[in-house]
From TrEMBL, chains A, B, C, D:
Residues where N6-(pyridoxal phosphate)lysine is found: K201
Annotated GO biological process: transsulfuration
Native organism: Coemansia reversa (strain ATCC 12441 / NRRL 1564)
A GO molecular function held by the record: pyridoxal phosphate binding
InterPro entries per record: Cys/Met-Metab_PyrdxlP-dep_enz, Cys_met_metab_PP, PyrdxlP-dep_Trfase, PyrdxlP-dep_Trfase_major, PyrdxlP-dep_Trfase_small
One GO cellular component term: cytoplasm
Residues spanning the signal sequence: none
Gene3D superfamilies found in the cross-reference section: Aspartate Aminotransferase, domain 1 (3.90.1150.10), Type I PLP-dependent aspartate aminotransferase-like (Major domain) (3.40.640.10)
Name of the protein in question: Putative transsulfuration enzyme family protein
Amino acid sequence: MVELKNSLYNTAAPSTQSIHGDDHLHATSEVSTPISVSTTFAYNKKEITANNYGLDQRYIYSRSGTPILTKVEATLSTLSEGYAVIYGSGLTAAFSVLVEQRPKKIALGSGYFGIKNVIEQYQRLVPNVQVVGLDCSYNDVDIVWLESPINPTGEVRDISSYALRAHAAGALLVVDATLAPPPLSYPFRQGADIVVHSATKFLGGHSDLLAGVVVSRAPKSAESMRVARSVLGTGPGSLDAWLLLRSLRTLSVRVQNQSQTATRLVAFLESHRRLAVVSACHSPSVQELAIGRRITAVRHASLQLSTTHCSFIETQHPNGYAPVFSIRFATKDQALFVARHLQLHTFATSLGSVESLVDWRHGIDSKEDPGLLRISVGLENFDDLANDWSKTLLALDAHEKGSAKL
Amino acid sequence: MVELKNSLYNTAAPSTQSIHGDDHLHATSEVSTPISVSTTFAYNKKEITANNYGLDQRYIYSRSGTPILTKVEATLSTLSEGYAVIYGSGLTAAFSVLVEQRPKKIALGSGYFGIKNVIEQYQRLVPNVQVVGLDCSYNDVDIVWLESPINPTGEVRDISSYALRAHAAGALLVVDATLAPPPLSYPFRQGADIVVHSATKFLGGHSDLLAGVVVSRAPKSAESMRVARSVLGTGPGSLDAWLLLRSLRTLSVRVQNQSQTATRLVAFLESHRRLAVVSACHSPSVQELAIGRRITAVRHASLQLSTTHCSFIETQHPNGYAPVFSIRFATKDQALFVARHLQLHTFATSLGSVESLVDWRHGIDSKEDPGLLRISVGLENFDDLANDWSKTLLALDAHEKGSAKL
Amino acid sequence: MVELKNSLYNTAAPSTQSIHGDDHLHATSEVSTPISVSTTFAYNKKEITANNYGLDQRYIYSRSGTPILTKVEATLSTLSEGYAVIYGSGLTAAFSVLVEQRPKKIALGSGYFGIKNVIEQYQRLVPNVQVVGLDCSYNDVDIVWLESPINPTGEVRDISSYALRAHAAGALLVVDATLAPPPLSYPFRQGADIVVHSATKFLGGHSDLLAGVVVSRAPKSAESMRVARSVLGTGPGSLDAWLLLRSLRTLSVRVQNQSQTATRLVAFLESHRRLAVVSACHSPSVQELAIGRRITAVRHASLQLSTTHCSFIETQHPNGYAPVFSIRFATKDQALFVARHLQLHTFATSLGSVESLVDWRHGIDSKEDPGLLRISVGLENFDDLANDWSKTLLALDAHEKGSAKL
Amino acid sequence: MVELKNSLYNTAAPSTQSIHGDDHLHATSEVSTPISVSTTFAYNKKEITANNYGLDQRYIYSRSGTPILTKVEATLSTLSEGYAVIYGSGLTAAFSVLVEQRPKKIALGSGYFGIKNVIEQYQRLVPNVQVVGLDCSYNDVDIVWLESPINPTGEVRDISSYALRAHAAGALLVVDATLAPPPLSYPFRQGADIVVHSATKFLGGHSDLLAGVVVSRAPKSAESMRVARSVLGTGPGSLDAWLLLRSLRTLSVRVQNQSQTATRLVAFLESHRRLAVVSACHSPSVQELAIGRRITAVRHASLQLSTTHCSFIETQHPNGYAPVFSIRFATKDQALFVARHLQLHTFATSLGSVESLVDWRHGIDSKEDPGLLRISVGLENFDDLANDWSKTLLALDAHEKGSAKL
């Protein structure tokens, strides 16, 4: 079992870990790591004897590991306070957890529909696997699969309380923290046993790579998963892995900036929504009213905080909330009008990228509210984004008035 | 269900198919396809109405497909006379066939050990899966998994006869044709139902990409596998897929050249082995004798042909045999001596690449003969390779004599 | 002449420009731009008649332009408030300015030695080219080549005053602003005619791409340079250009963070240097003294500001100073001791990357002070970097004391 | 001065040289070379003393060299029987020869127009540079710039005789052998002093990389050019260089196959042209006549050979003629009709790629015959290409007859 982490950086700040967590793995003098593509590695002719076939070499065949995979895993392990194994996508990572743990009963809440599809594939193979709700009894439950923050709302679940319940029932707590990677959240601190991420999202951050991560608290479990990955060939592509390493170098500045902008944008939209609601008393300018008039709800961890007594939210997010929130309109048509009219928010699925994205989740997941849009906030300037929303919401209001007149 | 193949090229020669099989999929004027990396695709704002959310778009999220994947699959479908789906590795492809077919009983012969590991992973999930030998009764067998040509010997199995037996028993015949991609072999012509390849090998051909392919005779099965791949995220990486497309352009010239050189090299080695055996009668030069003296066997489809009445071998290989053969020595030490001394054959695992490779399979798979080396012949010149063997085998002979004296 | 800029974003914030400056150039629905590699582009068969050979097509041959080059240039044009042309390296860009302008007399100050080598190559071709100092008379000078901020000190020159003098003499003012790209500085606002950057540094920002930029105030000059680039083939590589586009997406957060950390680090080191100087009066702890004792000077724009009346410095740097500074020791041995002992500052040449770099400039440019180190501050956490300096400077002090005793 | 070549392979066959010419430069156990992207290289901390700053390290900054550039140059040096330096494009390579040699008088024949543009750029810098024809007196000529084979005809010039004349006049003979790289031609064997290639063409071979090569007979000249390249930043991009290395692995099989197919296609077209001319006597089928009826000329080295006594052609081309030929029609309209109707020949500029290309050179270079098409033959099957021509030429004939009736 190879220890990939360099303990030197365990106490460094996340931004430092992101850049130096793989320093001990540089194989040449190249300061920026080359893009490893080789699928096979020459045996060291000198060391190989009849009794030593070089199987102590770190790399033999790329399905089992490459210099880039090792560097990414070392860096992510340090950053995530656990033992990371990377995969070809977030759902590949999720499936790999199921294959590793072979649960017979899974507790699962609402959230990203993809995990439900993965469990269905798993159920096609393993007979009699039961899925119960997060708030059901955990009797006989093997795995509690918790999403926090929640997709698509950006709200937070209380990891500690689920950890207590899961552990009391002898179940593992898996936390999908895709919407808030380090340094935004650290689920092991609240008792998670396994953390999964779609690295395609914030860890990758540029909409140009597909990868997933499983982080185990225990190094042994990570090693066992790495063996299965080696057999099934479920690691990421060479360029995907290299781009992920490149992306990790800027992780902290990206996600902290996105988190701050998102939280400001949520406050901006929510204040306009409220303004419209209470406008009779305050009589603000007509335009100010029109901006918020069609919004029926804004949801995000920052609003959760302000309306309920939820100290766990702050605890779970020492460096900011997820840069993802949701906004609701009365109708599907209104939601789609907004998605189509925003200029600085690309109308496409996915989240976590440098460019702001708006997605109408009902289109992909019919269980979602047809009036809801999921917003993933990018690295654009707050004023520019707020302005984009103002113009779009005013256009919606004008359009609705026009329609009403007809 | 999208038909990826351009029927225009169904009757073209393989070299033409390799280059033009994806002509109809060019999205811009770029003659060489760009490396698609985007994980998400913008919805067409004009076409999207409340009732048409763009789900008729070909690309939405890269886990489900990308322009490169489509081009590779179109080209491979045309080349392989079936419907191709690509995966992150050859073993990922194999596992996906199992997940799709969910067999309860599998008939499997000797050959590449990786498939056994995959079946073990499958058995961890699906209870009571039985594995029987290729020559056992096919009673209740769901899948006959046939490797031809066989790894590591390069010899051939009679696909037609296995197809007859499999189909008589109601089983599917899966053929792993990794060692002989088109234009070397076309297993559907002998009755295969599914063909799998490790595209990392000859299809990729440069030791720099990891990918696998499943080719189905039926388009429906391919489409169903593509859906599962989309859920499980088991497709290849972006650069791997692009490099595979680039590699396909030269497939025919590469593998036909490699096949010819391999067949000549096999003849060269076998003639020297025989010469040493019969030397008493012919008294050739001492050096000529020394070259072949330590070889105990050479195995390859071309030698199969010459010694038995096997017309199926020629039929299955209209354009040449696998560029892979095996050579056996009396001891592990002799085999490793040879592997270490060859200059133009890189001592590393894998096969199918532009550079010749020598692998001591016993090191990876303890069931293999410790005296056996697997040779994958590259694009080097025949004379240079033969010379490399002569020098190495002479050195081995000298070394053995020296050892004997001590 | 193609106008690449999208005027929509002229008034947006730099972070928004970095992400959306090329929105109008998306050719497919891919949200993240594919890596264009094609060297040739198919003619549109429908539009081509005998009289219209498709030469109105944007792309014909990649030496003349590619979709990626266009996107990078559009984004950089918007960001830089001019018309950008990109090249294979910063020095290629500099040489291209000389070829375009064909100066007979150049005024040049101290700074990066590379430009001197470029001028030498130019002088090998063009006879009788004179080079005079920045502070000499500009009589007959064609080009004033000004570096600001200055390499390696990180200090600033007063662009406006040089612009006045240059223009009064009929000369062009070229500003090499490599150490402070947008949003840190905007030399056109102070009267520059042409701005050049080594995009390998902060614009690229990850030590993994080689490129240069010339930004002209006039679109005509940019177009003329693009024609010469097309003839001489001096554009950047395909991956270099694509990585540059990816890097621009994070430009603002990267360089503003690096600028802030650098300014804090400069203050930290300078305060320790002063503390040691004035220690007799203040009697701080021995260790505090030891940190700054061996530093003979720290130089950076932020210190320039505090010691002289230089309002131009603030004006030229609305969003922060260069993330590059220099530190001087008494001897070459001391400087090299520090360069070798720093852990979080990679001892390698270059600057502008995510990882902090330390370079001993005398090794490359013998005119530089042998006691001087150039520091390029990366995205690591300030405390971690300050701690790295403290440990290293204490080790230096201990080492010097040990040496003194011997 | 670093000797890059491994003399071990000087006597190997070209296909072996292509694959093993850089074996001695593998830096890690990776069998397929990683894509080097680092722009800077860490100094070896142990070796660096105050007197040894690591300047003996092979790599310091990527503008001066990278592991990939070195490998490409080592392989090309061995293949080309000289000392290779690579550049960002073929014209960059040509310009670099001029900068290195600073000729005052150049002898230049007809051929690729790009070199004329490069000389114009050179003339803008160096005063009074004269250009004379290839057949003029070489009095005072510094450089004889010879293209062989000639673009666009694919015909050959007698290198030996030009070498004699050039050397008698004290001039250097530069041969642009882009249309016939090794193993098709070896201009040093006929007395060339410098060989240049656009590596974008056959050396690259896939229309996906831009690069150029200068090969010097003298290692000193190569080293001097490498220094200038380092100053001017005119090397190729990182991916371009890596793809070139990948392409070299298949060089021999690609170009020999293309050469054979081209020579057969030329024979096919020429025989149909002649058939039409002499049809009165032989009365072939009407369709057979119609194929060749509109062709006014076919030009290629293979036809040169058959009509004149030119033993130099065979001597210069031990392994085949250029895979490029030209075909002429009576009018511009006819030529464009053909270019538009060919299915397996992509209508785009450039040459040397895996896909067949057809270009109407008059569109780019108005000095070319408007009825001429340049054909670059790819790796498609001969019968498929011949069939493509038959259908297109029959369509042309039908179209012309239809037009005639109107």
